[in-house]
Amino acid sequence: xxxxxxxxxxxxxxxxxxxxxxxxxxxxxxxxxxxxxxxxxxxxxxxxxxxxxxxxxxxxxxxxxxxxxxxxxxxxxxxxxxxxxxxxxxxxxxxxxxxxxxxxxxxxxxxxxxxxxxxxxxxxxxxxxxxxxxxxxxxxxxxxxxxxxxxxxxxxxxxxxxxxxxxxxxxxxxxxxxxxxxxxxxxxxxxxxxxxxxxxxxxxxxxxxxxxxxxxxxxxxxxxxxxxxxxxxxxxxxxxxxxxxxxxxxxxxxxxxxxxxxxxxxxxxxxxxxxxxxxxxxxxxxxxxxxxxxxxxxxxxxxxxxxxxxxxxxxxxxxxxxxxxxxxxxxxxxxxxxxxxxxxxxxxxxxxxxxxxxxxxxxxxxxxxx
Length: 370
Hints:
Elements: E1 8-10, E2 13-15, E3 19-21, H1 36-45, E4 52-59, H2 76-90, E5 97-102, E6 130-131, E7 145-146, H3 149-168, E8 173-178, H4 183-188, H5 203-220, E9 227-232, H6 243-255, E10 261-264, H7 282-292, E11 296-298, H8 305-313, E12 319-321, H9 324-328, H10 332-340
Parallel strand pairs: 3-4, 3-12, 4-5, 5-8, 6-7, 8-9, 9-10, 10-11, 11-12
Antiparallel strand pairs: 1-2
């Protein structure tokens, strides 16, 4: 029996296997509204055989989008557009669906990656950014506006409103984006948070706003549906956010009913010095899992089925995220199951596709003709 293809209970959400499709920005929304691209893209991935599909980073307010073309869930129009996508997927797939809710903070108002990805000035169609402290993402950029007490309340309530919208359109799970240098990460790291109030300084203070957001979202999202968080386990910068602080955050979240941790790294500082290699972040997921007791998703340069199998079988993580590899090969779970000797269900429209050597790959096949 392949460990990767065993079921898993994610805080009450039944997953058929341990393969997770992480959130991947598509930069294809209009005013935050999902488009036909999202229906095609997510619909394709929902037929892949993975255990969980997480919808891309979704802004909880217009100013919280990474780019002008990022998905949003702050308005009735956003809710209706994404609801249409979810409804379309549900017609043909019962794959559990999650959404990553986030706010970009000082990394907002960026051009699309294929347009250079740099800060867009307000006069060019961008907007002023906001952050815990008046520290820009890059030295040559204007300082972001410091979020005051009223702003903290507004942003927290925006997360709550988005969580309620996610529940109304039938999503099964929420992941809060606390990684990659975006707003919640900006509050966590001493490199970006130099406040002198109750939300800055000590580790306890820097945890405060992300934990407040978590508590509010957990209270707003239906019981029995998990709420977790994606984190960057380290800034890869001396004196920045690190693994020990990540463990402390995970332990605090566990006490508040967090369902899981999705463990990544980096993204906050241009000074980061990453040490890349296959599975280079798995060690962080293993430590968070061991010291918090929370289910963890490991991600980062995990490409081969045998590698993913070893991570789960060895207890380093409960789930494995396959992101870019899934874009390159949207049937990655099929091919992984074939290599690992597992079976999995597939849409009946695809039952006739199997090559002779993998004729038993799909479970439940029953066809006929005349």
